[in-house]
Design a protein that fits this description.
Blueprint: H1 2-66, H2 74-96, H3 102-118, E1 128-129, E2 133-134, H4 136-201, H5 204-210
Antiparallel strand pairs: 1-2
């Protein structure tokens, strides 16, 4: 009888340890899943928002450059362009704080150079003057630089989609693994119930018959 009890206690202890170990593993899995979805939000969805805002400001810059032949308050144009450029650079700073891939970092660095170096307009006369009208060559040059900047943004946006898909796939694997562990726990609990019943309850009537 003591031998049976010892076996029962040993088996039950092992099963409880396995269940405890499974719970620890599942906690780590949930932490990993939570971290993955945080990355999807912080490093991909939020960044896509940055890209949208940058694109909007870049469009505003191009609009001011391409419509330089229209009647406009010349004194405000340069300050408006500079304001959009400063806004873009502030968004880039936030962008750089996220978890960047190597490819992403290269595109962002190239885009940053275009904004800070190639699109600097110190005088509206570079674009338009009353005497000679629109400086078509200079406007065309700025448009080419803006086109390159847009291409960088398109590539950055594509990376967000690709990396976001990778993170979602990773989360799916973690969730499936967690479901397998949950099934394993159910199996352990069933085995535990059977062991308890077999060793503690099934033998009880026999013991009672011995004393009657």
């Amino acid at each position: 009888m003591k031998n049976k009890r010892f076996k029962a206690i040993t088996i039950i202890s092992i099963l409880l340890l396995l269940i405890y170990g499974k719970n620890l593993t599942e906690r780590q899995a949930f932490k990993s899943i939570s971290k993955t979805f945080t990355e999807v939000y912080k490093d991909r969805l939020v960044v896509e928002g940055y890209i949208f805002q940058i694109s909007d400001r870049l469009f505003s810059i191009q609009k001011l450059i391409d419509h330089c032949n229209l009647d406009y308050d010349y004194s405000r144009v340069i300050s408006e362009i500079q304001g959009h450029e400063e806004g873009i650079m502030e968004l880039i700073v936030d962008f750089e704080q996220t978890n960047l891939t190597i490819e992403e970092s290269d595109y962002l660095s190239d885009f940053k150079k275009i904004i800070s170096n190639d699109l600097k307009i110190n005088s509206y006369n570079l674009l338009f003057s009353d005497s000679s009208g629109v400086n078509s060559q200079q406007v065309k040059l700025y448009d080419q630089k803006i086109a390159l900047a847009k291409k960088d943004l398109e590539n950055l946006s594509k990376i967000q989609m690709d990396e976001g898909q990778k993170l979602i796939s990773k989360a799916k694997v973690q969730i499936n693994r967690s479901q397998i562990w949950a099934q394993f726990e159910v199996a352990l609990l069933i085995i535990l119930i059977i062991v308890i019943y077999f060793y503690l309850f099934k033998g009880k009537p026999k013991n009672q018959d011995m004393f009657t």
